[in-house]
Queue: 2 jobs
Job 1
Amino acid sequence: MQLIREEQKSKPTKKFDVSFLPDFLNVLLKEERLKDMEKYRIDQTKGMEFGLYTLGDHLPNPRMEARISAEDRIHEIIELAKLAEQAGIDFFSVGESHQEYFATQAHTVVLAAIAQATEKIKIGSSSTIISTSDPVRVYEDFSTIDLISRGRAEIIAGRASRIGLYELLGYNLRDYEELYEEKFDLLLKINEEETVNWSGQFRAPLRNANVIPRPKNGSLPIWRAVGGTPASAIKAGMAGVPMFLAHLGGPATVFKRSIDAYRETLTRSGFDPSEFPVSTAGFFYAAETTQQALSEYYPHINEGMKRTNGRGFPKQQFAQGADPRDVMNIGSPQEIIEKILYQHELFGHQRFIAQMDFGGVPFDKLMKNIDLIGTEILPAIKKYTAKNQEEEK
Amino acid sequence: MKIVALSGSNVGSKTRTAMNSTVKVLHENYPEAEITLVDLAEYEIQFSDGRNYLEYEGDTGYVAQTLMEADAIIFGTPIFQASIPATLKNVFDLLPQNALENKVASILVTAGSAKHYLIPEQQLKPILAYMKAQIVQTYVFIEEKDFYRKEIVNDDVIFRLDRLVEDTVVLTETYMKIREAKEEAYGF
């Protein structure tokens, strides 16, 4: 028996008409507001951006005996970024995880190599753990990457879900919240002010400090990485920074709550939501058919999660992920296009970034995915989301 | 099949005595099963600080990982101050959300008073259900008067214990088959 039959699947019943959208979304779609996200290098007239991200995991392919070397894995990631650029993908990012089964702890070094190997794709982190880093050094690294790449670098600052790096780098887990807030604030300040005066709890004070080099266009897009709950989205809204929302799986409508909460908080905190882009990040895998995509990707996700988190990914939940209303972008190219457009209607977001390399997916499959993105998925998404803008004009 | 018998208290001997009997019945009737007795009194376990369970070290890491690898867990618990002991609650707190998904959980309770009879129903089962366990609904409730010098002396309790062990194993086997069939049906 096959449970995932196309004709059995429920479809989102209603396309969201602009008139149903809350005011702040209507504002986002108005022609004169399309340039408002320039500070974050987002041009909405070109439609929604599509990116790839990797956590830099270095996991065995469950279908093979051994895993590739860390050397090969790092080269794979650099190669992936080059292929992404060739396919017309907008953005590529690399994360840092200081634990077993990961290889890009020095993610800024990998990003520098990618900056050198590419010419137009935007590059960033997914994410940079600002809590356990010195914001001055982080800024120096990223503005240097920005110069190497001639103005393509972005920072997505997060705070890690694991404690290993707190011990490794000598920080106290009890300061988890405050480390992040203080260092994130300092990072923003360095971005805004060329000469910084600052004092805080976790770093020596800065007196008329010039943090150089400065990025090519004066400032870097700095995003706040946010997990699933509205509580952390609200914090991004309070800070008045663009938000990167990670989602593993579940109904898209659940994640909409976080995005709504973010924009409401921006407004309440005196910011204009039309100036702040939202990006989502989640699992992605395309194959000829939805069933094939599920079957190819599942062992990687399940075994990879077991090793890195201690629990596999329930098969039932993964199977439900194929539903058009679920946020997991796994399926045939057509299914994925429909899902991403549905999510775009719900979220009004400016970028989606796809994680398709988790758990030792072999490189030929990654190439196949990039091919499907470049030839089928990306053109459809751009066409629809850009057309939407023109209709407004 | 991996079965863990967890004795959930640092205090007294009744729960451990009952768990010893349980493990004996398991060994006798299911020699092919892999059975581990974990008595919390024998380990130094830290309080949960919210980290991923893989990151605990020493005894804490051992207990958390042993439970996560089990197919079935028989929870033995006394009743303290009208609830489960803090030692047992801490074990739950060490584990992730949904930690008991695809596991069978059964319950054995020792208590000083018959007035405590509904406490596992009202306080332990909701935790197991929240953590997504498949629960053996009937539990064994053993009172002070059923013990004599670290032996269970009430035949009725002994029979009920035998049934609990059998129900735990049968439900685990059955649930494994249900799960296999269900996952097979997804076709990937």
Job 2
Amino acid sequence: MRDKEILEARLSETTVNHSVWALINKFDQPATAVVTRSNANEVVEVAQDVVQDLMKCLDVDFCGMEKDSSEDPYFDPTGTVAHKTIERSLSLLNEAIVLDPTLKENLNLDLLERISEIPSEKIQSLVSDLVPERSDEVAKVQSSLAKNTEGKSRTQLLLNMSKDKKLDRSEMVNLLQKTFSESDAYTVINVLESLPKFNLNEDELARTTVYLCRFKVDGYEHNWKAVKKNVEKVFADFSKICNE
Amino acid sequence: MKKMMTAALLSSALLTQATFASEKPRNKMLDKMMYTINQEVKVKGPVFRDQSSKEERNQYGTDMVRLILKRAHLKAQKYLEVDDTQAYYAFMTLALTVPLQEGLYIQYRGVQADVCNVDANSGELIKKAGETTHANFVTYLMGGEKPFIVPCEKIDSKKELTQIIRGYDGSDLSVMQVSVRWHFDDFLANKKFEDTVQTLDYGINHLMNGFEPVYRNIGDYKCIGSGGLFKKKKVDYINLIRGIWAGKYNSGSIAKTCRFAELNSEYKHHDKGFEKNLNKVLDFNGVIGSGGDLDFKLADDVSLAVKEVVANLKDKTNNRTNLDKLIAE
């Protein structure tokens, strides 16, 4: 059976027969080419149905995706057809919201909260882009993202938070501090590569970057070098913070 | 991204004699490793002609390696920005090795002979790789107003054919051997196979998606990062290169990074093959390739740049006059 048919067996008949499912599978067409104001409403509904159904099988058996054969070692557990279909659905969802922002009210926030737990940087970044602005309603989704994101998706979340005028800035700074003190080196350095974009003031820089000193003593020299060089682009006094 | 299974055979292949007086000799093993491209499609990038002179074949190799160095530099330069030259040269070495391992440094082949493979070009061959792979082949490679691949009856073999390299079962495509089953959403959907630069960028980007997280969280990979409480922590950059190919590129996951170091790995032969090609790069002395008429004597400027990459990796130096000149062109 083809991967598409395997996925369709996990979706409702209504979804599979819907025109939006066909648009989701037109990977050679960007979201901007297939989502219009007239179909945006349907896109929001069907794309979320697809994601909801695929979420159920993803953890069980990658929705039935398997390697080609035992001779072929290739299998990406965060890049299966189910993952790519979820990414595509979220992209279309995003485009629909851009075209008609009132459709934000139709977002299934419980679903977005659950999707943000999928260990995929691409999927988490797309969820983050769907809820860029703080409100009481999306707080749980953003909280889940803050807990689960790593690497590029953590950077994307922080960037969205830094641009959010409705968000208390201290929330972004606190998450930055938490990232610097607890996250793995890959996540920390990925965030640091975007540090100039957060526009931190001197006080914020001093408060947050002190947590990076752990890389001087705990980690490998190449990571400490990357931490130092990236911070010093925006904070010349960093060397004093870690007694360099 | 699977290994070219016939690389060992090709490495000892010589130009064969022509069957007819009018036919130029060619490397007949390559005939079995190609899809023939629709003659209405114009591809972008150097074209390897095994029927051409040694000088022209060497020029092809020079052009391909020059492209690889330039494209890999764009991804790797962030390491130079933080003074991490070892990471930079490790990534550059990885980028030089993978297209040799995967596609013998060949993306497109130009040939004057009736060599269109009927089973390959009809999609019959790729059926053996599975229904999804076949479906993707039909949709993305044989579909559209101007299909990339057409059945052989639509090919005029009196004119030069342009071909693209494929894996033995047709399921991997291009010099980076990108999987037709798994990489449909971007590589196939956006027709990156029509352009050598886009193909290289796709593969190099995939390598970096493995390189960076492994390199930064190196303590999780005992086959690459060593040291403990009282010993200085070290990175084995050669093992890093081997690990990224074994894990992210060949297995699809960085969780398999240390596969090459496992004594009882069922994919030992894959990793041994990669090690051989890595050693070709590390021992580079002007000529590189998969052997015989698929060896390329690189022009001086590119040759010197490759030697700088390798020497800097081995000696932990950063002498890059020739590399910088090449990149700036």
